[in-house]
Amino acid sequence: MANLNDHMGRPIVAVTGIGVVTSLGVGKADNWAALTSGKSGIHPITRFPVDHLNTRISGMVDFLPSSSKGASPLTYELAETAAQEAVAEAGLDSGDFAGPLFLASPPVELDWADRFSLYNSDKQDAGAERLLRVARALKELDIFETTQFGSIADRLADRFGTRGLPITLSTACASGATAIQLGVEAIRRGECDKALSIGADGSATAEALIRFSLLSALSTHNDIPEKASKPFSKDRDGFVLAEGSGALVLESLEAALARGAPILGIMRGCGEKADDFHRTRSKPDGSPAIAAVRAALADAGLSEDEIDYVNAHGTSTPENDKMEHLSLSTVFGERIGSMPISSNKSMIGHTLSAAGAVEAAFSLMTMRESVIPPTINYDNPDPAIVLDVVPNKQRNAEVGTVLSNSFGFGGQNTCLVMAREPV
């Protein structure tokens, strides 16, 4: 019988359910088939006019009922869809989850349809007075609720019957991984025997596109959208804004085995370190990212030689890819040139708040299926970044452990270590 506690005497945390939605499709099956075949979900933007924008492509999810209804409704539908798949796979009651909810979601702001409804009155009024008068006359709560940061988690808690106050968090591009970390830690502390961790982001709005463009963070490779995301390539020119969701059902191994649940993988370790150097750029020596990787390995009780594969943050921005290479080469030394390291973002784009959860889901599937997804568009290697990026085609390989990196704006660095089997 497997040990029920880890090297530090804490309950081992198992994954018993996985759910995914990206621009490649709904559900694990469609996503995995597309991802491992090297298919790209990046496409021209049709949701809003892009005539005067430098970037006119994205990995938006355009095929859900809420895709045209604004960021908040779409984020909710993405989260619900992924969570439903994960809870069903875990064999749990979809209306009585009976564990806490941790949701990573984007910051909230009014959608344009709501802004227009608030300003839709006599233009002769002073702006502030008109806004207050129209707002007071609105009898429904829909607009108010969509502006509340916790409203999506509240609805999900009601939908799935989670327990306690649902937690909503936003730690930039590390958010999805942080939501998983919080679930792992709650189980380890004995506060619960299962948790639902979700990362969801449907905020690929015109404003978001313009803001990231002003930071020179987005690719402008518009002519061939599927070729735009080029992690670790010499000619990489920025990330591709995208949407998606990932959900994991986490349980103590003891509880999962007791009810005969499927064991899809083990959450071995979590590490996080803050970087206070700059709002968007990493500290030049890479020390916070290095420390996050090492913290995750220490938490997992694993040495550098015991990691089989790295699911890279791999955004395709010149700065991030360079710093991730620096951190990995520092931690893994000479081995870094031969261990497989690939980026899902080459195909799905950067799903922002959802990225850490989506990539954790794909990492678990990599171990289960013994297939490493490729880094596509790797046609022009960067001689300053010597990595085995599993270029352009999937690779069959026995993978027992994975390090999944999430490095976000604002200095948010979170790394997850997962294993195929219990210790």
The termini sit apart by 11 Å
**CATH class category label of the largest domain:** Alpha Beta
Would you identify the CATH architecture of the largest domain?
A: 3-Layer(aba) Sandwich
Largest sheet: 11 strands, mixed
Structural class: alpha/beta
General description of the model:
The model has no long low-confidence stretch (mean pLDDT 92). The protein is α/β, with parallel strands linked by helices and 423 residues long. The radius of gyration is 21 Å and the shape is globular. The protein is 33% helix and 18% strand. Helix 2 (71-90) runs parallel beside helix 6 (151-160) and helix 10 crosses helix 11 (318-332). It folds into two domains: 13-109 and 147-419, Thiolase/Chalcone synthase (Peroxisomal Thiolase, Chain A, domain 1, 3-Layer(aba) Sandwich), CATH 3.40.47; 113-145, no CATH class. The longest helix has 20 residues, at 71-90. It is built from 13 helices and 15 strands. The chain has helices at residues 28-36, 71-90, 112-119, 127-137, 142-146, 151-160, 175-188, 206-214, 253-258, 287-300, 318-332, 345-348, 355-369; strands spanning 13-22, 25-26, 43-44, 57-58, 101-104, 167-169, 194-201, 244-252, 265-274, 309-311, 341-342, 371-372, 395-396, 401-408, 412-419. The protein starts with 12 loop residues before the first strand and ends with a strand. The strands form three sheets. Strands 1, 2, 5, 6, 7, 8, 9, 10, 11, 14 and 15 form an eleven-stranded mixed beta sheet that branches.
